[in-house]
């Protein structure tokens, strides 16, 4: 993620823009992997669980994809990435 954000900031970010942020969506969490992956980075990093679904009004909830739809997309992306390697 750090590599991609550095490239984006170097090549695409406008001088008036704030530094880019990256968001990684995961099916589960592994504290050891997160700790080692982020250990020597000098940029600010936040790790969090995020659940907004229950706080949204019904009219907005209905326009967003369901958890199942997101899981299907993530599975498709994961399979494509594996096939390309």
Automatic annotation (TrEMBL):
| Protein name listed in UniProt | YhcG PDDEXK nuclease domain-containing protein
A Pfam family annotated for this chain is: YhcG_C
Q: Which organism is this entry from? A: Aliterella atlantica CENA595
Residue ranges constituting the YhcG PDDEXK nuclease domain according to the UniProt record: 1-65
Q: What is the lineage of its organism?
A: Bacteria, Bacillati, Cyanobacteriota, Cyanophyceae, Chroococcidiopsidales
Q: Which domain of life is it from?
A: Bacteria
